[in-house]
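Hi V.,

You were right to ask for the full record rather than a summary. Here it is.
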Amino acid sequence: MKIVCVAACTAGIAHTYIAREKLIKGAKALNFDILVETQGTIGTEHALSAADIAAADVVILAVDIKINGEERFKGKPVVRVKTDIVIKSPVKFLEKVAGSLERA
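Predicted structure:
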Protein backbone atom coordinates (compact mmCIF):
# COMPACT_ATOMS: atom_id res chain seq x y z
CA MET A 1 0.00 0.00 0.00
CA LYS A 2 1.21 3.50 -0.82
CA ILE A 3 0.42 6.18 1.73
CA VAL A 4 0.99 9.91 1.80
CA CYS A 5 0.56 11.77 5.04
CA VAL A 6 0.68 15.23 6.53
CA ALA A 7 1.60 15.62 10.20
CA ALA A 8 0.91 18.84 12.10
CA CYS A 9 0.30 19.54 15.78
CA THR A 10 -0.94 22.56 17.68
CA ALA A 11 2.49 23.81 18.74
CA GLY A 12 4.23 22.57 15.60
CA ILE A 13 7.15 21.25 17.56
CA ALA A 14 7.31 17.78 19.12
CA HIS A 15 4.17 15.87 18.11
CA THR A 16 4.49 16.82 14.43
CA TYR A 17 7.91 15.20 14.12
CA ILE A 18 7.26 12.31 16.50
CA ALA A 19 4.12 11.42 14.52
CA ARG A 20 6.17 11.44 11.31
CA GLU A 21 8.78 9.08 12.73
CA LYS A 22 6.20 6.72 14.24
CA LEU A 23 4.24 6.53 10.98
CA ILE A 24 7.40 5.79 9.01
CA LYS A 25 8.45 3.03 11.44
CA GLY A 26 4.93 1.57 11.54
CA ALA A 27 4.67 1.54 7.75
CA LYS A 28 8.07 -0.12 7.46
CA ALA A 29 6.98 -2.84 9.89
CA LEU A 30 3.95 -3.53 7.68
CA ASN A 31 5.90 -3.27 4.42
CA PHE A 32 3.87 -0.21 3.31
CA ASP A 33 5.33 2.68 1.35
CA ILE A 34 4.82 6.01 3.10
CA LEU A 35 5.82 9.63 2.60
CA VAL A 36 5.14 12.08 5.42
CA GLU A 37 5.08 15.85 5.00
CA THR A 38 5.42 17.92 8.16
CA GLN A 39 3.93 21.34 8.73
CA GLY A 40 5.62 22.66 11.86
CA THR A 41 7.04 25.84 13.32
CA ILE A 42 9.82 25.92 10.73
CA GLY A 43 7.39 25.55 7.85
CA THR A 44 6.71 22.66 5.50
CA GLU A 45 9.32 19.93 5.25
CA HIS A 46 9.35 16.77 3.13
CA ALA A 47 6.68 18.35 0.89
CA LEU A 48 4.55 15.91 -1.08
CA SER A 49 4.65 16.31 -4.85
CA ALA A 50 1.65 16.00 -7.14
CA ALA A 51 3.15 12.71 -8.38
CA ASP A 52 3.47 11.41 -4.80
CA ILE A 53 -0.18 12.18 -4.14
CA ALA A 54 -1.36 10.73 -7.46
CA ALA A 55 0.43 7.43 -6.74
CA ALA A 56 -1.00 7.10 -3.22
CA ASP A 57 -3.75 4.66 -2.28
CA VAL A 58 -4.72 6.76 0.73
CA VAL A 59 -4.00 10.09 2.40
CA ILE A 60 -3.57 10.26 6.16
CA LEU A 61 -3.93 13.62 7.86
CA ALA A 62 -2.34 13.17 11.29
CA VAL A 63 -3.21 16.67 12.38
CA ASP A 64 -4.44 18.65 15.36
CA ILE A 65 -4.82 21.90 13.40
CA LYS A 66 -5.89 23.16 9.98
CA ILE A 67 -3.17 22.50 7.41
CA ASN A 68 -2.07 24.26 4.25
CA GLY A 69 -2.81 22.66 0.90
CA GLU A 70 -5.51 20.22 1.90
CA GLU A 71 -7.20 20.73 -1.48
CA ARG A 72 -4.34 18.73 -3.06
CA PHE A 73 -5.98 15.55 -1.83
CA LYS A 74 -9.36 15.99 -3.53
CA GLY A 75 -10.52 12.71 -5.04
CA LYS A 76 -8.31 10.56 -2.78
CA PRO A 77 -9.51 8.58 0.24
CA VAL A 78 -8.58 10.71 3.26
CA VAL A 79 -8.29 9.47 6.85
CA ARG A 80 -8.11 12.09 9.61
CA VAL A 81 -6.53 11.25 12.93
CA LYS A 82 -5.07 13.13 15.89
CA THR A 83 -1.29 13.01 16.26
CA ASP A 84 -1.47 11.31 19.66
CA ILE A 85 -3.24 8.29 18.14
CA VAL A 86 -0.49 7.62 15.60
CA ILE A 87 2.18 8.27 18.21
CA LYS A 88 0.68 5.73 20.65
CA SER A 89 -0.26 2.95 18.20
CA PRO A 90 1.09 3.52 14.69
CA VAL A 91 1.02 -0.12 13.54
CA LYS A 92 -2.49 -0.72 14.88
CA PHE A 93 -3.71 2.49 13.26
CA LEU A 94 -2.14 1.64 9.88
CA GLU A 95 -3.61 -1.88 10.01
CA LYS A 96 -7.04 -0.35 10.63
CA VAL A 97 -6.61 2.00 7.65
CA ALA A 98 -5.54 -0.89 5.41
CA GLY A 99 -8.50 -2.97 6.56
CA SER A 100 -10.99 -0.21 5.84
CA LEU A 101 -9.55 0.26 2.33
CA GLU A 102 -9.85 -3.46 1.62
CA ARG A 103 -13.52 -3.40 2.64
CA ALA A 104 -14.27 -0.31 0.53
